[in-house]
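During the first year of the project, the team set up a workflow for recording each protein of interest as an amino acid sequence followed immediately by a discrete structure-token representation. This format lets reviewers and collaborators read both layers of information side by side without switching files. As required by the reporting guidelines, we include two representative entries from the current panel. The first entry is reproduced here exactly as it appears in our internal archive.
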Amino acid sequence: MKTENKISVFGLGKLGCTMLACFAHKGSSVVGVDINETSVSKINSKTSPIYEPGVDELIKKNADRIRATTDAADAVMNSEASFIIVPTPSEENGSFNTKAVESVAKAIGAALKNKSDYHLIIVTSTVLPGDTARVVKILEETSGKKCNVDFGVCYNPDFIALGSIVKDFLNPDMVLIGESDKKAGDVLDEIHLRLVDNKPSINRMTFENAELTKIALNSYCTLKITFANVLADICEKFPGGNVNVVSQALGFDTRIGHRYLKGGLSYGGPCFPRDNKAFAWTASKLGVSHSLASKTDEVNNFHRDTRIPSKLLAILKEKNAKSISVLGLTYKADTTLVEESAAISVVRSLAKENIRIHVYDPAGMTEGKTALSGLKNVSFKDTAKDCIQGTDLCFVASPWKEFKTLTKEDFKSAMKTPVIFDAWSLYDFESEKDIDYRQIGKYNGK
């Protein structure tokens, strides 16, 4: 195995920046490439242009092995492998727009014209079956060279969660490689063996099988999340029902497992919703029934747009109250993103009613203010304590660590008559006589 890899990363978003930082952390020389000059400048100033735990520290610590540029040819000529991790936004029909991937492929192909050494191109952006093969065609047409002779191509998506990308990238459950030939796969295999801290399963296959595996995996995760939320709804309907007890027992069956089997809010973010729609689109395109994936979205949206807002409004009516505090706006903890956030959807639904709404998030206030702009009865607060101050009901929408530090005294002193509806079972307030504590997926006698 080589002692060092020379790598270029095209796209300095959340995943691209994290990849760059992790490759450098493991001893590789890395060139980041982006059309955004601000991102390039920040990298060259030893600062992360994105919010993701651990990334800024890794960039600072390994700055001598990191640089960034807007020049694609510079990056290709000074690396042995190029990772493409640029956006592939969803189309209305559920497919992906691959224009950015194709643009990068053209730039890399143009650079390959003047390179005599073998070069590996890795598509990490999520694409659909058949898209990586089109990248190969673009590279050949632009460079005038042949795949599997002058260069190799792999499809290598990552399975990470925002907020824990560094950990997930260095400790993957598996590595998925769609390879143009054995040599391309061998080179990428070696890169990953240098990178990871654990010993993941390495799964090598054709482009198309790898492309399908990526969206199928995320589609299956959405199914587990939605199933858990249906369980939660059922558990709320009978005395003693508790989704945490039921899902914990289910998860011990090795055919099922515990991950993503917890009653809470709907799935959201930049991956799960769109990959589930892409899975349905792929099935439809091939003439296969996609009702399972479509139904998952339907149930998920009902949970987000109807079930949870209705429960909150019912509590307010029960208490003859008119104010609510919402702790958490991002689609999950440890990220700034509110894309497809269930919390944002709940706030929008509540804002249609004649109630006062306080909101707070440790990192998502900027994006939250944009998403909720124009809602006159929504107030943005600076801290969690400010958010719950003077409200009748507190809805805990995201499991941020900061929220766990709130004590029963904090709620009692800040709220009029404390009622807490906890989506993530963060607190142990069930025995508190002065707090009406309710949880998603647990019977509360109402």
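The second entry, processed by the same pipeline in the following quarter, appears below.
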Amino acid sequence: MRLLIAGPTASGKTALAIAAARRVGGVVVNADSMQVYRDLAVLTARPTVDEQAGVPHHLFGHVDAATNYSVGRWLADVGPLLERLGDAPVVLCGGTGLYFKALTQGLSDIPPVPQAVRAQVRAELAGLTPQAMHARLAARDPETAARLRPSDPQRVTRALEVLAATGAPLASFQSARTPPLLAAGMWRGVFLGVERTALYARIDARFEAMIAAGALDEARALAARGLDPALPAMRAHGVPGLIAHLRGQATLEEAIARGQADTRHYAKRQFTWARHQLPGFAWAHDAEEGMRALFAV
């Protein structure tokens, strides 16, 4: 039995996952699309060395920020890992609902996009606002555009890349799915849906703690690399605002407020996603209730 812990950012998933792994003598496997990046230990609240003590952790910080990591790449990493772990108790933990959906329901069978096509599309989109990118997609692929937010340039870019590579809308591929790595009966999942007001207060406090722990240094190191701002790591919550501050385009207070607001908005979307896309996950209001749900006690 694999134990799956999902939930919004700052909900206490890490502590619950480690406690659950210690209870069964197991390991923790990352299911968060930002905690894979080695460049973002602080800004993604990756488990610290002290937190990991005595519990093996896998797929944390193993990807360079220059990599356009995806759910497909994660499945390619996690599948062989689960095979190697065999019958060992495993706790998969993270805030990326799409990872859990792909793990338990399968992944849309979308053809790969050649690197040359990807580069061409990104060159055409360079300098466009997210709204302009979405408008371009709507003109060429209205069905897919209707499913995507104008404020989500990463997925809009992906849709344009697939359209350019295949000549077919992304939406046309999304009904066909690969078999899930974890079929029904192989897993038990919990969504840690803590109370919103308390959660938002935690988010704000945690972002300020991140600043004190070196988040600005992480942003400075990323900025110095001159990476494509459309890369997932460059769009991690807090990174754009802090880089804007480092370039003299915003005060530190403004950057902090932006990071906090972006994270709160993301948490709201995580609730919505789980409600509609993660059937089979029990909802828990706190870690104690989550532990009972995981172990059915």
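For the second entry, the following points were noted during internal review. The mean pLDDT is 94. The radius of gyration is 19 Å. Both points are flagged for discussion at the upcoming steering committee meeting.
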